[in-house]
Each structure stands twice: as C-alpha cells, then as structure tokens.
Amino acid sequence: MTAFVSTTHSRLSSISPRHYTEFIDFLTKARDTFLLAREGKAKFAQLVENVKAAYKGKKKLVSLINARFVARAGAAADGGGGGGAEG
Description:
By secondary structure, this protein is mainly alpha-helical. The protein has helices at residues 2-12, 20-34, 40-54, 59-77. 69% of the residues lie in helices and 0% in strands. The radius of gyration is 13 Å and the shape is globular. The relative contact order is 0.13.
C-alpha cells in the first residue's frame, strides 16, 4: 500500500487534464489492492481525502475522484440506496 501512496503522489506532481482518466483507473486498481488489507478501506479513504486536499486546485480531477470513489462509498454505506457526493 505504501508503494501505491508514493506512486499516487508522484503521478500527481506532473499530471495534466488529459491524463485524469488514466489516473482514476490507476486509483481504482489501487483501491482493489487496499481492500485486500486489514483496514484497507479506511486507508484508501484517507488516501482519497489527502489527494483531494493536496490537489484541490485541480477541480476537474477532484470532481472525477468524487464521482468515482466518494459517491460509490456513500451508496455502499446506504446499502445502494442512493448516497452521493456532498458539498
């Protein structure tokens, strides 16, 4: 998991909007790996929050992250009953 965290920040240091979709795919694979570990769900959620905070100026990227990960987490917590990104 540490390698994913390091790679995530490394990739973001020079990311351009045309690479956002590729980055979201990378984060999806990272999430799958995190979920295999004990407390992986919480650690992945923390990674997502850290990325959103550190790169809040990249509004399109944060929007894509929210759409892919935050809304899904809310739907899962609601039992699939609708959840969504807040704010």
